[in-house]
Amino acid sequence: MTSQYAGELCTLLVEDNFGELFARIFSTLVHYDRLSFSRLKFYSRLSNSQLRHGLAAMVQQHLIYHYTSYDDGITYYEPNMQSAYYLVRSGKILEFIEHRLGKYAATVMSTIMFLGHAQVGYLETLPALKPANSDMNGASEDSGEKQIAEEYQGEEAHQETEDQPNGLNGNHAPSVYPTLLHPTLKALAGHGYILRVRDAQFQSYTDNALDAERSIKLRPDIKALKGKKLEDAVMEGTLELLKERLDGDLTRGLMFNGVPRGAKRRHATGAADAPSKKAQVDYAAVDEDEDGEDENEWSDDEFGEDTIPMETGITIRINYEKLDVALRNRRFLELAERDSSPETAEVYDCLLRRIEYQTGKCRDTTQIPREGEEGEQYSVPISLRAVVEDVDLLLDLAGSVGPMEIFQPVHRHGKRPLEESVNGIGHDGPNGVQSDGNRTYEVDQHLCLLAQPPYNLTSKRMVSGLITWTVEFRHLARKLRHLELERIIEARYGDVALRVVRVLHDKGKLDEKRLQEISLLPFKDLRQVLATMQTGGFVDLQEVPRDAQRQPSRTIFLWFYDPDRVCNSVLEDAYKAMSRCLQRLLFERNRLKEFLEKTERSDVKGNEERYLSEAELTLLEQWRAKEALLLGEVARLDEMVAVMRDY
Amino acid sequence: MTSAGSSGASVTELASKLYEQCLNNYPPDQLFYQHDLLGLGIVPKSDLALLLQCTQSLVDQKLFRLLQGKNDRLAWKIISREDAEKLKNLSPDESLVYNVIHSTGRSGIWVRAIGTRTGLHKSILDRCLKSLEGKNYIKSVHNVKFPSRKMYMLAGLAPSEDVTGGAWFTDGVLDENFINTVAGYIEYTVSRKSWFEAPSVDVHRSKRMKTNDGSASVKQETSQKTYIPFPAGYRGYPTVSMLTNAVNESGITPVRLGEQSITQLLDMLCYDNKLVALSNGEMYKSVKNPEAVKQSQARKPAGEDKGIDDRLVTNGMTEAPCGSCPVFKLCAPGGAVSPESCEYFDPWLEKALGF
Amino acid sequence: MSRFGAKKGRKLPGAEFSWDNDPSGEADTAPTPLYPKYTVPTARPLTEREKTQVDFYRALREQFHDGPYYSVLDPGISASRRTAAGKAARQHFDPFHGMPSYSGKYQKKKRGIPKLSGRPYIMKYFPRDDLWEVIQPTYKPGTAMDGFVARMARPPLKRGFEDDEEEDEDIGKRRKTGDDDDEGGENDDLLEPDDQEEEEIIDDDFEDDEDEMGGDYNAEQYFDGGDDEYGDDGFGDGGGGGEEDTY
User: Do A581 and B322 touch (CB under 8 A)?
Assistant: First the structure.
């Protein structure tokens, strides 16, 4: 993440979001990596107050790390590339939150992003987070408000909300109306999408590690050790201490049977047309109440403690690691959607969601391990029962899997009490009542389908006699990576190249003859494609001389494909391409600078129809489409970066 | 055959007995040493001299071929009567050449190698080869590895895969059209057995199924029929032998293809992401359903300009103007090639947005 | 892509000057164009989901732009009030668009320096010597802050952050005033007005000599202050020593 192009990109992102001052500070730090205030001032050529204010704001936004040295007491600043990079993912994250937890949750998330980190108590004061349809005096006359009010009356006593619109006034008038804020924060915390801010998060990982090591070494029990034992103990202690210091997990106590409180059910129960529409984006009940008519219902009443608001003193920020897990699951699901029926994909979604709740981050290692050195990493096993519970009852599971044997209506494994028609769909349709066992079997069958090659999206595990399902993360992450590379190869060099690369990947190093036999390609095509791919850096040639003279005629040439290396260079290219798109966007904006400034005028904004001419409106629309496309392209490239760096 | 005195007749007799015994009890490739032949108990008292007389007589009749076995010991192989007939009609030179060619079996032999091994002059050798070829005893073959070398082998033999490169080579050149025809046929055949064709009732229902961005519903919407997958553990997918038979019966191949060749092709299809091998290649399943296979195959000959393959959709890199930009490496802000002066962004934006 | 899509889409610089175009067989010695012809790929139209994502990104970005932190280096007229940036602003004055105009009052104002006031900061997350003075103007270097939370432009507020469980333990240990946060800050202000001035002078010195940093800094005091204030057990969640540097 410290390459030239990554630095360039992060600086651009900082500039795009926060302006030139931040960008100047950031790029100076990217350039010099670690600077004291005075050196930073020197190199950035900023005034004292620019720099001090800038730095303070950037610390607030987690864009830089700071560390005050033990030795000289001087504070050093470093760029926080990770945080800066995640600026590009904000749209994706907010869209995901909206999809998962509703519009209001997305607003809360974006407010937290806007603030960098914030105390719950401060969030309470923000007008932006008050329910949209409430008026500022806290009256709850209108109907929507009332409904929520009724559901939350129990909470009022605990809630101390400041209703000052500007958030600056410290009067403590208890709010008259309840707010969605606390349940939403709890849901976000329960899902792990936000975490508690810890002091150590403001220092870089290296600084934290060194600090932790130092403290461990000072411990008397460690001091007594020697040699290898000492090393091991220090290592272990350091990691433990680091984990403890950086840990901002908020999910504890907010999970119930592996599901966060406030998590909506995957499906809306009771509605007849449920399978045909996208699951509701609002919260649905987590309880087992199948008759809940109101999908919007909050279920918190069931758990006494959940009506307790979040502690106002907790400082929270976005948990990007966890969101990467969720976004990665989304990619897995997309993989399933490509080849499987929508029903199977939906079952997979249920499994993945259960897994997401209990997965904190994508990987244990900071770097993606090299191919072949990567161990297996299975997700938590999710019991089949749990998945069955989550799958929409109205989803027609049986109709989307063919029969085990054609033309022989048999009872599979004797488990099915119903006769099947020849076509395997003769039994209970969407509206029929299905027995539990049957349902379990069907869900299992869909999960089995997913476990098949080529993707092996799931794997079955027996845990103390119970069927559970897991996902092998590393295998799938690798699959995603390879797919991205293969897409590039196919697009650049054609399907012949793709075949060649897949052969090489599967078989290792091969000479031309063997390669031809397996790929069944004419020599001419084969050589041409290998040569162009070599130029592009996708395949490479190893020379194995057969004698000391190393004459070409006495040399064996072996072709090979090293996905690790290709990945790294593609990753750099992706950073660079993202930068170029952003730079172009800047350039395009400058082309239209006068016009865009006009549209941003406070009188024009929001009243475009009134102030702008027809032509100007068209121009504005075109500009927005252009900007969306370029930003969308950046987001698509980010998708690749995620696959190659984060998943 | 005119060996001394009284033993003459018996040598011939013994010899033919010996030949019969070898022919009937041993495979045609068996190498016989002296003690093997004595062990047959035909030559009385293990009389070595007598045995040698017998074998010599058989060699003269072209029924035995004299060879040098291990440790320079003498050894013999039997020759079928038919071949013996042929050989009897050859001149000594021709016979010599024939034997050399014969010795290389299905691999064939390079003309120059025959020359060195027989020690014959080139013109004589050429004449011999011509005459043998004329009698249809030998044929010239094409070796994929050494396309420029003139090689010969016995007319009755099929060249080994080393020589031909396998069933997929015609005259030493990879027969792309043939491969594509058979591969297409196989993919479709596998596909038909890989998907369950649900009755049309399902179409309606499946269409209503929620999908993500519509991406997953392509299958349902583009085809009349609805195909659904078989459950895991389904055993009805085609095997190599089933497919080999199907290909050979289909009439698309002029020669009978072996299972090995078909496996080769199946592997290739797997590398193309078209098929998936199940249980270690015991069975094969197609990735696309028959309808989709038909569509993509129909599109193929349509030309160079076919759209993006639906399997591997593009990603951020391939569709960005930078993705395959020829001067990407030179590009730097403020440089001669720069994002500001880039000439590719405008057409790119225009292409996608239409203005 | 077709087989060998490479042929179509990806030409090396100069590849379009094929020998065939030139029957005389003479090599074309024209310089390679900066932008050789190349068929740009077609981008898929954005999906609904992607559009939503982009809109979220733009909305957040706009929030940042309208927020207190967005600052430009040459803020022009809007920032010319600031003396520090004034000189530069005059130099780069744009005679066409720089003049104040009626519609200018609607023009988006641009900041030259992030505005830090208007929201609370949690002091312990910031490096003390360099930044406390900007997020909490009442802070005097060398004095111990009572609360960690600085709230600016905001009247004293008793309710709130010092109740944070993380800081509960610290309340008892507070050295000087033992009062609550913001008020404590202001008390400092009243008690040590000299420090404020001194600090400002030092601040000015920075402009000329960046290496003479830290005139206000006293390493020993730094550590003493830290230790006294929080002791080894520091924050309940701190996990022991080694954290002093973060205050």
Answer: yes
Task: Check B319 against C43: CB less than 8 A apart.
Answer: yes
Model pLDDT, residue C92: 58
Helix, strand, coil % (nearest 5) of chain B? Answer: 50, 10, 40
C38 interface with B at CB cutoff 8 Å: yes
Nearest to B327 among C8, C13, C47 (CB): C13
**Would you say the pTM of this structure is higher than 0.80?**
no
CA angle A270, A274, A277 (to 5 degrees): 155
**Averaged over C163-176, what is the pLDDT?**
39
**From B213, B303, B320, residue closest to C49, measured CB to CB:** B213
Q: How far is C199 from chain A (nearest CA, A)?
A: 12
Q: Which residue of chain B has the CA closest to A581?
A: B339
How far apart are the CA of B207 and the nearest CA of chain A, in angstroms?
9
Which own/partner contact pairs does A618-626 have at CB distance under 8 Å and 24+ positions apart?
A619/A592, A619/A595, A620/A595, A622/B353, A622/B355, A623/A588, A623/A592, A623/A595, A623/A596, A625/B353, A626/A588, A626/B349, A626/B353
The CATH architecture of the domain made up of A4-79 is: Orthogonal Bundle (1.10)
Pick left, alpha or beta for residue A246 (phi over 0 → left; psi -120 to 50 → alpha; otherwise beta): alpha
Q: Which of A190-199, B45-54, B114-123 tops mean pLDDT?
A: A190-199
Is the CB of residue C6 less than 8 Å from the CB of residue A492? yes
CA B109 to each of CA A139, A294, A635, B132: distance values in angstroms, whole numbers, following the listed order: 101, 86, 62, 14
The interface predicted TM-score of the complex, written ipTM, equals 0.83
CB contact under 8 A, A491 and B323: yes
CB contact under 8 A, A491 and C5: yes
pLDDT at A610: 87
Tell me if chain A has a CB within 8 Å of the CB of C101: no
The reply to whether A595 touches chain C by the CB within 8 Å rule is: no
pLDDT tens digits, residue range A304-316?
Answer: 445 678 888 899 9
Tokens encoding C212: 């003479």
Rounded CA-CA distance A449/C90 in Å is 71
Q: Is C42 on the interface with A (CB under 8 A)?
A: no
Q: Are A329 and A356 in contact (CB under 8 A)?
A: yes
CB pairs under 8 A between A and C: 285
d(CA A163, CA A137): 7
Domain boundaries, chain A: 4-79, 88-197+248-318, 199-246, 335-471, 494-561, 567-646
DSSP E strand stretches across B36-150: 64-68, 74-78, 109-110, 138-141
How far is residue B183's CA from residue C18's CA, in Å, rounded to a whole number? 36
Return residues 48-87 of A near C (CB < 8 Å): 48-50, 52-57, 59-61, 66-70, 72-75
Q: Which domains does chain B have, with CATH numbers?
A: 7-80 (1.10.10.980), 90-164 (1.10.10.10), 173-302 (no CATH), 316-353 (no CATH)
CATH number of A494-561: 1.10.10.10
C129 touches chain A (CB under 8 A): yes
Query: C166 pLDDT exceeds 90?
Result: no
Examine the pLDDT at B280 and tell me if it is beyond 50. Answer: yes
CA A113 to chain centre: 15
pLDDT in tens, C22-54: 444 455 566 778 898 888 888 888 999 999 999
pLDDT for C132: 87
- Check CB contact of C51 with chain B, cutoff 8 Å: no
Nearest CB to B232 within list A337, A445, A517: A445
List of chains touching C (3+ CB pairs within 8 A): A, B
**A316-352 per-position pLDDT tens digit:** 999 999 999 999 999 999 999 988 889 999 999 999 9
Domains A4-79 and A494-561 share a fold: yes
**Is the four-CA dihedral A70, A71, A76, A82 of positive or negative sign?**
negative
